[in-house]
Specification:
The complex is a heterotetramer of chains A (about 170), B (about 100), C (about 350) and D (about 650). Chain B has three helices and one strand; from the N terminus they run βααα. Chain B is an all-alpha fold. Chain B has one domain: Helix Hairpins, CATH 1.10.287. The longest helix of chain B is centred in the C-terminal third of the chain and has 31 residues. In chain B, about 60% of the residues are buried. Chain C is mainly alpha-helical and about 350 residues long. Chain C has one domain. The model of chain C has no long low-confidence stretch (mean pLDDT about 85). Chain D has a two-stranded antiparallel sheet. In chain D, strand 1 and strand 2 form a beta hairpin. The longest helix of chain D is centred in the C-terminal third of the chain and has 48 residues. Chain D is globular and about 105 Å long. Classes of the chains: A mainly alpha (about 170), B mainly alpha (about 100), C mainly alpha (about 350), D mainly alpha (about 650). Chains A and B meet through helix 1, helix 2, helix 3, helix 4 and strand 1 of A and strand 1, helix 1, helix 2 and helix 3 of B. Strand 1 of chain A pairs antiparallel with strand 1 of chain B, so a sheet runs across the interface.
Chain lengths: ~170, ~100, ~350, ~650
């Protein structure tokens, strides 16, 4: 019961944050809204028993990636978004498509709901840091190492791109 | 205890909000933020399924998604800075040519 | 369940007050100690030894006019100090201060986030701590940016970059301890430090992890923007850095946040390197009193760290900014990584 | 391959020159001339050594192991069609590889000196080595298809080398002409292969010959004749026989060593080799055999008459080559294959010698090729003179030189063979006389009398020295050594097959008999020494008449030729203009093809149909793109809209599919 209440509270915060993200015209507000969404998602992860993912969500996403966003916003001194011409495709194809997507998602979830499924929550047998470590450094060792290469490449790419020309 | 469908519904809503943001926002940074929102929505599905299937693989995938998101953010923001230097605007509607 | 919530609420209330009081008196302590180091008296006028000075300061902060300059981005200008102080205080929630406290039918721990039975701990305590620390950047970054002032912006950018940079070495320096302890739970780590090496030396991780400890100490100073790493508020260059435009209570909040962070950092050092609350405990006391003795040990160790903080402030000059960055990235980070590698090799070899 | 099996490493023989060609072709422009020459020579010498070693091994193999077949990689395997990279060595191909690598090596050596002052040195040696590779592939191939690869490859090398002085229009045109004329012959070869595959299901020599021997005579005569005639068409193309001989005289535009190697000694004999190789088929198709004999005989006589009236030293030799190849075809046509191969071998020696000597003369005169501007060179270039003399006497058929034995055997066979007739013999004999005449005409005009100056500069500028005419000098040693060696072989080469009638043993015939005896001409069984000696004396006599006439016309009475040609003006002009065959072909084939191509294929088919379709396609693509371009607006949000649409469609489909 407590889980359900907490879920609804943080789901509501999540959606409110996401809607605020869209509603705000200043990018920094959007970024902060996203941080709110991320924080609530971290709580939801905790509700699902994924403590490690929750902590990583905060440290990496909220603490590193979003800081980068905020930095860039500050650096470029991005002002309030200007209203330029409309994109007819975005309005008349994109938005109806998104509506359809939402409809389809709801429809399929309703279908799914009929086949009774168990509720889910934290599982004491799952989600300990050790187990994730075993997976990460055992079964997924190669992908893990590859991600480190990926990050190295991303760092170099970022440096090359953001550096001003030599001359 | 919460039914899986709730999580998935929340995930779908967040994802669609991200797509919607992509469609209606004009600031390139905000659009980028919307991409992050979509990634987060997907992560929520992963974690929910992980709990549902009692399988930790999905959480490892979340980890990878985060790594990719971090790399993408670094490179993407560097690109945004480079674009801003040449165009002096962040409005995607004004950045619609491949050459200056 | 309800009882648990009630007890947690009570504990939080008590702890916040204790912490805020401690913060206030750390300010007094700092002024006093630095004064004596510089051959001055420090505050002496308000109360005996100036002991009432913090209260006087508090009253002053509350009563001062809260000035909001024009052209600031108001929502964030207001949000930033609140964010700082809230995050600084949040960290204390997961820090275990001592053993169990027997309260008749219930047993609870000296820790806000202990399990209902009072024995367990959230098993990712340290990660939560790191997470909260990493978010603390926002307070400073937003404050500087929303002030709409060049000095503030530069100060906040410096502070943010500095915190992000040193957060890496800070986190990595802790990994050595984690490898030895084999747990992320702070309580578990502390319990692992009970006992003695060869019957003499306390079984503290500071001994096997000497390098990690120094990395941690240095990073912690940078993380809390203290001297010798207080460039964000370098008066000669940036006026007062990110809080140039702040006054009255908002300014006080940044101040409180800084000192609360000092406490957090000192607590973590105590827990991870100096055996937490472990110390000689006299066995003849009644159990209720005996339960508080570890708390005293803990407080004592933390106090020592605070003193070292102040001592360093009174001793060292300030770094140049590029030196600071080079030191963090080119020296501390590789050193921390090397420490992890060596430690893990030894751990793997021993097991 | 287990240890008891012999391994002759046949694959090395063609591969070595290919490596040389690759090295020189790819890196030669960075090397000095001496390095280029060394590379070119070393690989050919190695191929020669390998050939000699393999031949020696082959001689020790028991008869049951011959032909020795070396299988390497599978090449084509499509359904029932299998062709491998495999090599085939028997007595016939053994003779061929020895001739090819031996003469080839000597000509390489000669080229080192001859091409000294030319541009594109590395290119020349690369091409020469490439030619060696293809030629050796041709003769070592174990199937008609692999042989065809070599066949086409030597055509390519020939094209490249004829057009070696590609800045000269005539050289480039001659290259193209050789290539195109050969295409017609190749067309016949290809059709023959199709028929063979259709009939026998394989193109491997062993399979085809085995199946041919099992066929009953009457039922399959038709198809065998067809195959044989088509193969013959291919052979006439490569070996410059009527009607496809026209390319060879023009091929003299190439450097002289090329003429010697490709257009005299080796490549042009490929057709003879192919006919001899296919003797199983030809021997079962008497009609085709008769056609071969007639073509050979007519070509021999025809080319010899043209040769009489030519003044360009290399063209005389070119027509002589055609004529001698005609002899070989004549021998094949009377099923005396070993005589053909024998003549092939001796001809390789003396014709290479003659060409190289001609090259030496041209070299000495600084590029002069017109015999009317020569004369009196006997003292100035003695080595060339003496070697040339040996070559001339050899080709004219004087005993005991090589040409005597081989030509004599052909004439003998054309009379006594079951397929032979008196007419063939008579024409062969006349040709022998004419051959003797025009060769001695060349000899006298070049080396005797007084030096005649060119009236109009240095005629053909093939050998474009800066050397202007007067300074006649003997060639360097590196050019003379091959001359000497070839002269030696031209002298002695015939002794391997001295007929029984003259106290020999027909050893060469017997050596080749296992491969070529299917002809059933039973070459050795004729026990008619009297007839043979008589015929030999006749031909020597005829050759002597030719010599005498040449002496009279071009040494003793210099005014006679002019009078004779004046008297026979019409005929002489016709002969000098090579019977106007080129013009005939031009009018008969070339112009109609050009007209058809220009007026119909180009204007109608290409421009009117194909180009129009392509243009229409491009235009419509442009129109569609112009419309579709609007989607590519550069506006990210529009793209996102399309992506969203796509996602919606995919999700909808998946849900729909899940419900099914």
């Amino acid at each position: 019961m407590l889980h359900l209440i907490l879920f609804f509270i943080f789901a509501a915060v999540c959606i409110a944050g996401a809607i605020n993200l869209l509603a705000q015209s200043h990018p920094i507000n959007s970024a902060l809204s996203l941080i709110v969404v991320m924080g609530s998602l971290a709580v939801l992860y905790l509700l699902l028993g994924a403590e490690f993912v929750a902590a990583i969500q905060i440290i990496i996403y909220a603490g590193a990636v979003m800081v980068l966003f905020i930095f860039v916003i500050m650096l470029l001194n991005a002002g309030v978004e200007e209203h330029s011409g409309k994109s007819y495709v975005a309005w008349f194809i994109g938005i109806p498509s998104v509506t359809v997507l939402v409809g389809l998602a709801v429809y399929s979830l309703v279908l799914y709901q009929e086949k009774s499924a168990p509720a889910i929550g934290p599982d004491p047998l799952l989600g300990s840091v050790q187990e994730i470590a075993h997976l990460l450094f055992g079964k997924f060792l190669l992908p893990f190492e590859v991600t480190s290469v990926l990050i190295l490449i991303a760092i170099m790419g970022a440096v090359v791109l953001a550096r001003r020309g030599e001359s | 205890m919460v039914p899986l469908a709730y999580y998935l519904g929340l995930s779908a809503i967040l994802f669609c909000l991200g797509v919607l943001g992509f469609l209606i926002k004009r600031n390139i940074i905000t659009i980028f933020i919307c991409i992050e929102l979509m990634l987060n929505a997907v992560n929520l599905s992963f974690v929910a399924f992980s709990a549902y299937l009692k399988n930790l693989n999905a959480q490892v995938f979340v980890f990878f998604v985060m790594v990719v998101a971090a790399a993408e953010a670094a490179v993407g923001l560097a690109i945004i800075i480079a674009v801003f230097r040449t165009r002096e605007t962040l409005n995607v509607d004004r950045v619609n040519l491949l050459k200056l | 369940m309800l009882t648990y919530i009630v007890i947690a609420a009570i504990k939080s209330l008590v702890l916040i007050h204790v912490l805020l009081g401690a913060v206030a008196y750390t300010v007094w302590l700092e002024r006093k100690v630095v004064g004596h180091m510089q051959n001055r008296w420090g505050p002496t006028r308000v109360g005996p030894f100036g002991l009432l000075q913090p209260i006087a300061d508090g009253v002053k902060f509350i009563l001062k006019e809260d000035l909001t300059p024009p052209h600031v981005y108001k929502p964030l200008f207001i949000l930033a100090p609140m964010l700082s102080v809230v995050l600084a205080l949040t960290s204390i929630a997961i820090i275990p201060l001592g053993n169990q406290l027997p309260l008749g039918r219930w047993t609870t721990a000296f820790q806000i986030t202990s399990s209902p039975t009072g024995t367990g701990d959230i098993n990712i305590g340290l990660l939560v701590l790191l997470g909260v620390t990493s978010i603390a950047v926002y307070g400073i970054a937003l404050a500087g940016w929303s002030s709409n002032n060049k000095y503030s912006l530069l100060g906040s950018l410096r502070a943010s970059a500095q915190m992000i940079s040193y957060e890496l070495s800070l986190g990595l320096s802790l990994v050595g301890v984690l490898l030895l302890a084999g747990s992320l739970s702070l309580r578990q780590i502390v319990d692992n430090q009970a006992g003695r090496y060869f019957g003499v030396l306390p079984h503290w991780y500071v001994f096997p992890q000497m390098i990690a400890f120094f990395i941690y100490l240095i990073s912690a100073y940078a993380e809390t923007n203290r001297i010798p790493f207080d460039l964000p508020e370098a008066e000669t260059e940036l006026v007062a850095g990110y809080h140039t435009e702040y006054s009255a209570m908002k300014f006080a909040m940044f101040f409180m946040a800084e000192y609360a962070n000092m406490f957090t950092v000192a607590c973590v050092a105590t827990l991870l390197f100096f055996g937490g609350w472990h110390g000689p405990i006299p066995q003849f006391l009644p159990p209720l009193v005996q339960a508080f003795v570890p708390l005293l040990w803990f407080a004592l160790k933390v106090l020592v760290f605070i003193f070292v903080y102040i001592w360093v402030r009174g001793t060292l000059p300030r770094f140049r900014y590029d030196q600071l960055m080079a030191f963090g990235w080119k020296f501390l980070l590789p050193l921390a990584i090397a420490n992890i590698i060596i430690t893990s090799l030894i751990v793997a070899w021993l097991s | 391959m287990n240890s008891s099996e012999p391994n002759l490493y046949l694959w090395l023989i063609p591969l070595l020159p290919l490596i040389g060609a690759a090295i020189n072709g790819l890196f030669g422009h960075r090397f000095s001339k001496s390095v280029v020459a060394t590379v070119g020579l070393v690989f050919v010498a190695a191929a020669f050594a390998m050939s000699a070693w393999a031949s020696a091994q082959l001689l020790h193999l028991p008869q049951s192991k011959i032909p020795y077949i070396e299988d390497h990689l599978p090449w084509i395997a499509a359904g029932g069609f299998h062709v491998d990279f495999s090599f085939y060595l028997d007595q016939l191909s053994m003779v061929m590889i020895l001739v090819v690598t031996g003469v080839g090596f000597l000509i390489h050596v000669y080229s080192v000196g001859y091409m000294e002052h030319e541009g594109g040195y590395y290119r020349f040696f690369s091409y020469l080595n490439l030619f060696m590779f293809f030629m050796l592939t041709l003769v070592l191939a174990s199937s008609y298809l692999l042989m065809f690869v070599g066949w086409e490859g030597v055509g390519l090398a020939s094209y490249l080398l004829i057009g070696f002085f590609f800045k000269k229009d005539s050289a480039a045109n001659a290259g193209k002409k050789a290539f195109i004329v050969n295409r017609i012959g190749d067309f016949g070869f290809l059709i023959a292969m199709f028929l063979m595959f259709q009939k026998f299901g394989s193109l491997n020599f062993s399979d085809v010959f085995a199946k041919v021997s099992r066929l009953s005579g009457e039922s399959s005569a038709g198809i065998l004749t067809a195959i044989a005639l088509l193969l013959l068409l291919g052979a006439t193309g490569k070996s410059a026989q009527i009607p496809l001989y026209v390319w060879l005289p023009d091929a003299m535009e190439g450097p002289t060593p090329v003429s010697a190697l490709i257009h005299a000694a080796t490549m042009v004999t490929a057709g003879v080799y192919m006919v001899a190789r296919s003797n199983f088929i030809f021997s079962r198709a008497p009609v085709a055999l008769a056609v071969v004999a007639v073509i050979g005989c007519v070509t021999a006589l025809f080319a010899a008459t043209i040769g009489m009236a030519q003044t360009d030293i290399k063209r005389v030799l070119a027509y002589s080559t055609i004529s001698q190849l005609g002899y070989m075809f004549l021998a094949c046509g009377v099923a005396a294959y070993s005589a053909a191969i024998f003549h092939l071998m001796t001809h390789a020696f003396f014709k290479a010698l003659l060409f190289l000597c001609a090259g030496s003369v041209i070299h000495a005169l600084g590029g002069e090729q017109d015999m009317r501007n020569m004369g009196g060179l006997r003292k100035k270039i003695p080595v060339t003179f003496w070697t040339m003399t040996i070559g001339t006497f050899a080709i004219a058929g004087f005993p005991p030189l090589a040409g005597f034995f081989s030509k004599d055997e052909i004439l003998f066979q054309s009379l006594v063979s079951p397929y032979g007739t008196k007419i063939l013999w008579a024409m062969g004999l006349i040709t022998a006389g004419i051959t003797s005449f025009y060769m001695f005409r060349l000899w006298f005009m070049t080396f005797f009398g007084e030096r005649r100056k060119a009236e109009h500069g240095a005629g053909h500028d093939d050998h474009g020295h800066a050397n202007n005419g007067d300074h006649v000098h003997e060639s360097p040693l590196i050019m003379l050594a091959p001359l000497a060696i070839l002269a030696f072989f031209s002298f002695t080469g015939g002794w391997v097959n001295i007929p029984k009638a003259l106290g020999g043993g027909n050893r060469f015939d017997q050596f080749l008999a296992p491969v070529l005896n299917a002809g059933a001409a039973a070459t050795a069984e004729h026990e008619n020494p009297g007839l043979e000696i008589g015929l030999a004396l006749t031909s020597v006599f005829v050759a002597s008449i030719g010599l005498a006439i040449a002496w009279l016309f071009y040494y003793k009475r210099r005014d006679l030729p002019g009078k004779v040609t004046a008297a026979l003006n019409g005929v002489y002009t016709l002969v000098r203009d090579k019977y106007r065959v080129d013009e005939l072909y031009n009018w008969l084939f070339v112009q109609p093809v050009i007209k058809l191509s220009r007026n119909f294929l180009w204007q109608q088919v290409d421009v009117g149909t194909i180009d129009a379709m392509v243009n229409e396609a491009a235009d419509s693509a442009q129109h569609i793109s112009n419309e579709a371009r609007r989607m590519q607006s550069g506006n990210i949000r529009s793209y996102a809209g399309w992506v969203a649409l796509g996602a919606a469609v995919v999700v909808a489909y998946m849900i729909w599919a899940g419900l099914q």
